[in-house]
Design a protein that fits this description.
This protein is mostly beta strands. The chain has two domains: about 1-95, no CATH class; about 95-265, 7 Propeller (Methylamine Dehydrogenase, Chain H), CATH 2.130.10.10. It has strands at about 5-10, 15-20, 25-30, 35-45, 50-55, 60-65, 80-85, 90, 105, 110-115, 120-125, 135-140, 140-145, 155, 175-180, 190-195, 195-200, 210, 230-235, 245-250, 250-255, 265.
């Protein structure tokens, strides 16, 4: 009988839970990084021993952690963490720098506000290479690393989409919190942003399109606008990647054409 592993990030550290197929008895390992907020943990589908974790703190900032032995030991891929003159931890893996001029997005009061990096909300390892991993960040943008998390580069076509200045933070910030990779179409990436909506790329992240047709959000001035919807999560059918499920304010949605159209089913 096969085993199961659950990676849990909490406000007080990271935990790794393991059990056999019956899931009756569990072994709990942790907390790792005790006292730190762990926004996300994800294991590589290529190498089960490779785990990435987003460790963040309002005081010490963002740190990417990586394990190459299933969570027994951890390292900061960029080296360190070193400290700055104020004594704060820092390392190469903490450097998420927007490409070019960051520009502005809409703020809570409707004015324009500059893009500012705050933290990593989601880590999504590649389906082909354990050293290739994507990161969804706040303020909303998509980054990738091809060296195991040591250095990061923005896939800026998303943030620089024509609708970018209309994106606005939700109650938890303006975060890219979901990344979906299509196992049958290597160039397809789908993401969700609160509060902008869902977007899809079919060319590996170079260009993007909103996939919010059919969404209705009555709190918006235009309830069926192209962007501005507070999407909380999207998920992909494990064997039918064209089928997506979305949970947002007010509704649970379904799409059978990779997001080109959505309909409510609750």
């Amino acid at each position: 009988m096969s085993g199961i592993r659950v990676l849990a990030g909490t406000r007080k550290g990271a935990f790794i839970l393991t059990s056999d197929g019956k899931r009756k008895n569990w072994k709990v390992d942790g907390p790792h990084f005790a006292g730190w907020e762990i926004y996300h943990m994800k294991g590589s589908p290529v190498d089960q021993n490779r785990i990435y974790a987003s460790q963040t703190s309002a005081w010490f900032g963002q740190i990417i952690q990586r394990s190459d032995d299933g969570g027994k030991s951890w390292s900061t891929p960029g080296g360190g963490p070193a400290t700055n003159p104020e004594g704060m931890p820092m390392g190469e893996s903490n450097k998420f720098v927007y490409d070019g001029v960051p520009g502005t997005h809409q703020w809570y009061d409707g004015t324009q506000h500059p893009w500012e990096f705050k933290r990593v909300w989601h880590l999504e390892p590649s389906l082909q290479d354990p050293n290739h991993v994507f990161a969804g960040v706040e303020d909303a943008a998509l980054f990738q690393s091809k060296d195991g998390g040591a250095t990061w580069q923005e896939l800026s076509g998303l943030r620089k989409h024509d609708t970018g200045p209309k994106w606005q933070p939700g109650a938890g910030g303006m975060c890219l919190h979901t990344i979906l990779l299509d196992q049958k179409n290597p160039g397809r990436i789908s993401v969700a942003i609160s509060a902008a909506g869902a977007f899809r790329s079919d060319d590996g992240g170079e260009t993007w399109k909103p996939i919010n047709r059919g969404l209705h959000s009555q709190f918006m001035p235009d309830p069926t606008a192209e962007v501005g919807h507070c999407v909380h999560r999207i998920a992909m059918h494990p064997s039918k990647p064209e089928t997506l499920f979305m949970q947002k304010h007010w509704d649970v949605m379904r799409s059978d054409d990779a997001g080109d159209s959505c309909s409510t089913f609750t």
